[in-house]
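FORM 7B: Structural annotation worksheet

SECTION A. Query
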Amino acid sequence: MRIKRLILLLFLFPVITFAQTTISGKVTTSVSHTGIGKVSVFLSNSSYGTESTDDGSFRLVNVKPGQYTLVASSVGYKEYTKQVLVGNDPISIDIPLESKVEQLRGVVITSPADFKKNLELFIKEFIGTTENAKKCEIMNPHTLNMIYHGRKLTLEAWTDDFLVVENRALGYRIKFLLDTFSTSGITGITQWQGQVYFEEMKGTDEQKADWKKRREESYYGSSRNFFRSLYNNTLPQDGFIIHRLTRELNPDRPDDAVIHEKLTLFKGMPRTRQNVDSFNYYINKLNMSKYYHESLSKQPLQPFQVYEPTGKPGVYALRYNFTGCLYIVYTKKREETDFKDIYRTLDMPNYETSVLTLFKPYALFDSNGVVFQDPPLIEGSWSKAKLSELLPFDYIPGEGKGAE
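SECTION B. Predicted structure
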């Protein structure tokens, strides 16, 4: 009986673990329904993508289950997006594209010096400053439209076509349709929205081995790794511990905008002792933690306390029925950045730590470990993740993927 069961499991295991499907269809004009060729069709944030043939047909093969955004983009047409929940069954989708009437957001006029300065800030906040970031290059930087608001210390950026970045550290050629990007020098918060497509770069066997190693280093300990471990109930084995964190806003620390306003004011005033003292006073306020009365639960939280399945296959809800935040420790890596707003007990090793705060009662994530609805505020280690560490949603360590 044991031998028969083992044989059965060996046959079932690949089906359960590596279930994949095909998404196919046709891209046409919305008016005449004529097929359109050479349209970029891809699943955003993944490595699944293709171009439609001359008659508008397309196929995406070997797609892993999960929640995706299907995107179709072509010059002269409005961008098409559709949420797709991929299971084990083939999916057929016809895509009608509407002609686009160009609407200017406004004329952006900058000097070469301003463009260079803005580009440096964009690269720092969008691509990052890590060793991987040093191996990233924007291939068409002048596709970017950028505006810097000096009084608010805020950079805004967007593109009307694909922004192409080669990540030679991870072996991806990444194409962005960047709808909005903003980074604030006051709050330190960077946000962007858009569609992303990953293409595998060609390389030597030595390069591919290095890419494999670096991809795994980026993946392990990441939020994707955590969410996959959460629904697989493998948190301890994978190095994750969850605690409940309670905290309050520090009443002795003014709002970031107020601190910035005061620093700008006193920096521009005559250098008297009183003005210097006032400037230093607000520097001290800036360096204070945003929170106080912080406390961690002694016992780690169990998976059932922070997530539950939904009615949809492969879709899960991150939720908790208590006040506070999720304090997530990854015990297999040490943190090299000093986060002044991340609470640590005196006896806690300096492990990588992230804090998640829900804005809504729950956030939804899928079997790829991707949060796709109402994402929480992320602080700590995971907040450092930028383009240079970004992996496609369908990435799984040690696994390759075929495509047509």
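SECTION C. Observations
Confidence is low (pLDDT under 50) at residues 1-18, 400-404. The longest helix spans residues 2-17.

SECTION D. Sign-off
Analyst initials: ____
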